[in-house]
Amino acid sequence: MISSGVLLNGRYRVIRPIGGGGFGKIFEVDDGGITKVLKVLSKERFHNSVIQNKAIALFRREAEVLSRLVHPGIPRVDPDGYFTCSVQNSYHQLHCLVMEKILGSNLQDWLQARSFQPITTELAISWLTQLAEILQLLHQRQYFHRDIKPSNIMLKPDGQLVLIDFGAVREVTTSYLQKQQGDETGTVIISAGYTPSEQAEGHAVPQSDFFALGRSFVYLLTGKSPLDFPKNPETGELVWREQATLVSLHLVNLIDRLMAPFPGQRPQNSQEILQYLAQIPKNSPTGLREFLQRISNISSLTSRRRTPRERLPHSRIFKFVLAALVLLLSTPFLWKSSPAIANNLNYTGWENYEKGRLYSAEFYYRLAWIFDSKMPQYQYNLGLVYEDQKKIDQARAAYEIAVQKDFGKAYNNLARLDILDKKYTQAVSLLQKSLSLVEDDDKETKYTILKNLGWAQMELGRYQEAQTNLQQAINLFNNKASAFCLKAQVLQRQGNQQASVPDWKNCMKYANPQSPDERVFISLAPLNLK
After folding, report:
1. What are phi and psi for residue 107, nearest 5 degrees?
2. Is residue 48 packed enough to be buried (19+ CB in 10 Å), middle (13-18) or exposed (0-12)?
3. How much of the chain exceeds pLDDT 70, in percent?
4. Which strands, in side-by-side order, build the sheet including 161-163?
5. What does the CA dihedral 378, 380, 384, 387 come to, rounded to 10 degrees?
6. One CATH from 3.40.30.10, 3.90.1150.10, 3.30.200.20, 3.40.50.2000 for 7-100
7. How confident is the model at residue 440 (pLDDT cuts 50, 70, 90)?
8. For the whole model, what pTM was predicted?
9. Computed over its alpha carbons, how large is the radius of gyration of the chain?
10. What pLDDT score was predicted for residue 491?
11. pLDDT digits (tens, 9 = 90+) for 37-96
12. What are the C-alpha distances in Å from 79 to residues 7, 63, 64, 177, 431?
C-alpha cells in the first residue's frame, strides 16, 4: 500500500491520495518542490492475466504518448515519468506514471457547479477551437483519444482547456488498420452517451473522437446529458436542437456534423473543424440571445450617462424589448422552447450580475421569469439584484415568490431580511425550513443558513443553540468571518470575554469590509483587537 510520506523511485514523495477508480489510484506527489500527479496501476486489482496484461499495455501506452506530446492542452509527462516499483507489505509490482498536475475543474463538475447553466455560443466556439487544436496534434501524431467527454476535459484558471485521461489512447498503426479492414474487433472503450457506435463495436477511428466531442458540446450547450435526448428513428441523429434555440445556427450545424452516425459523414480531420469555426460570423446576431445582448448593451450605456435627462429609463427599455418578444412569441415553436430560452436568459443575467451590471442582470432575470414562471431560481436571482440595489421591499417580494415554490435558498435570504428587521422568531422558522431543503453537498448554502440561524438565536437569547449552529458553520468553512464574528458576540454576551478573543481575532482576520454584515460585525470587536 502507498501511504503519505513514502518516497518512490528515489524522487517522488507522496503527499496524499486524491482519487481512484478504473485501474488504480491517484496521488499528489512532491517532485523537488513541484506538485505533480501520480497514477498507480496495481496488478492485484486483476485476477485474469489477459485483462491484467491489457491494462498494463494501455497504461504504458498512455505514458509513452504523453511523454511525446508537448502542448498546453495536454498533461506533460517527463521521459522518465513511467516506472515500476514495489512498496512495503505488498507482493505486487506497481506501475506508476507521474504527470503534470492540472489546476482547475473538469467541465462536468464545472457545469454542475453553475447549476447546469449552458455556455454561450461565443464560449463554445472558443472551447471547440482549443479542443480541435489539441486533437489536430494528437491525430497528426497518429493517435486518437477514444474517451472524450466533459469529465475528461479540464478548465484551468487561465481559460486553457486540457484533455486528460489518455488511458484509452490508440495509435493508428499498419497492424491496427489491417485488423480494421479484416473486421477484427479491437479493444472496446465505452462512455455512455459519448461513444459512437463504431467504437462500441470495436472499430474506433480518429473520427470517433469528433463524435464524442460533439456529444460533449451538446451537454455544455444545453446543460443536459446526451442520454436525455431521443434519436431520430430514421437517421439515428440526436434530437437536441429544440433545447439550443439560442445557439448560433452555424454552430448547431457543426455539432450535428460532428455527431453524424457514420464516420464518413463527419469532418475527416481537425483542420476542417477549425476552418469551419473560423468562418462563423463573429459580429452578426446568431439568435435571440444576441438580440437581447445588444439591447442590454444599450441599457448599460444609457445608465452611465451623466444627467437624468439624457438617461433612457430602464423600464422603457424593458417594455420595448417585451413588445418585440410578443411578436417573436407569436410562433408556437418559440413558446414550446420557452424553458430553454428562459434558462439562457437567466444565465446571461448571471453573467451580467457577476460583472456588477445590476440593471442588465435585472433585465434578463425579469425576462426569464416571463418565459418560465415555474422556475423559482429566477425570482431568487432577482432578489439578489434588488438587495444589491438597496431595493429591500422588492427583494423581499422576489424571495417570497421563490419561497412559495419551496426554493430552499430563498428561505435563507428572506430570513436574513427578517433578522435585519428584528423579526427573529420568524427568521428561525424560515431558516429551519431552509436547512431541511438544502443538499448535504451544498456546503456554501449550508454555512450561510447555519450562520444566520445562529445569529437569530443569539438575538433571541438562545445562546447555547446559537453557539452550536455557529460552530457547525465554522466546521464547514474555517476561513469565513461571519460565523466567527457572531460566535464571539455570543460568548461576549454570556460574559465569556476571554473565550471570545480567538473568535474575534478570526473575525478580524477573515472579514471583508465590502460585506455589509461583516462591516457591522467588525465594528463591534473590542478596541484592543482593532
Report:
1. -70, -25
2. exposed
3. 82
4. 105-106, 153-155, 161-163
5. 120
6. 3.30.200.20
7. confident
8. 0.54
9. 28
10. 94
11. 998 886 666 666 777 787 888 888 888 888 888 899 999 998 888 898 887 766 677 888
12. 19, 9, 8, 28, 56
Through-space distance between the first and last CA atoms of the chain, rounded to whole angstroms: 50
Answer yes or no: is pLDDT of 226 > 80. yes
**Location of C-alpha cell 449552529:** 469
Looking at residue 238, its amino acid is: L
Instruction: Report CA-CA distances (Å) from 469 to 92, 165, 465, 475.
Output: 48, 42, 6, 10
Give the tens place of pLDDT for each residue, 487-529.
999 999 999 989 999 999 999 999 888 888 888 888 888 765 6
pLDDT-derived band at 21 (thresholds 50, 70, 90) equals low
Q: How many residues does the chain have?
A: 530
Note whether 79 and 183 are within 8 A (CB).
no
Range 105-279: architecture per CATH: Orthogonal Bundle (1.10)
Known catalytic membership, residue 147? yes
How far is 120 from 287, CA to CA, in rounded Å? 11
Q: What are phi and psi of 170, to 5 degrees?
A: -130, 140
Q: Tell me the mean pLDDT in the region 152-161.
A: 92
Question: Could you tell me which residue, 247 or 394, shows the higher pLDDT?
Answer: 394
In CATH terms, is domain 443-530 a member of 3.30.750.24? no
Helix (H, G, I), strand (E, B) or coil at 6: coil
* CATH architecture assigned to 287-405: Alpha Horseshoe (1.25)
Q: Which three cell numbers stand for residue 525?
A: 470587536
**H runs (alpha helix) in 223-285:** 249-258, 270-279
Asked whether this chain's domains 287-405 and 443-530 adopt the same fold, the reply is yes
Q: Which of 179, 159, 175, 29 is nearest to 103 (CA)?
A: 159
> What digits encode the pLDDT tens for the residues 114-139?
889 899 888 999 999 999 999 999 99
The C-alpha angle 378, 383, 389, rounded to 5 degrees, equals 130
| 8, β-bridge pairs | 12
Instruction: Give the up-direction half-sphere exposure of residue 507: CA atoms within 13 A in the CB hemisphere.
Output: 26
Residue type at 286?
Answer: T
Catalytic residue among 80, 147, 165, 418: 147
C-alpha cell recorded at residue 493:
454576551
Q: What is the DSSP string of 37-88?
A: EEEEEEGGG-SSHHHHHHHHHHHHHHHHHHHH---TTS----TT-EEEE--T
Domain ranges in the chain are 7-100, 105-279, 287-405, 443-530
Dihedral over Cα of 166, 172, 177, 179: its sign: negative
- Asked if 485 contacts 448 with a C-beta cutoff of 8 angstroms, the reply is no
Selection from 194, 198, 215 nearest residue 258 by Cα: 215
DSSP 231: B
Q: Has residue 15 got a pLDDT over 80?
A: yes
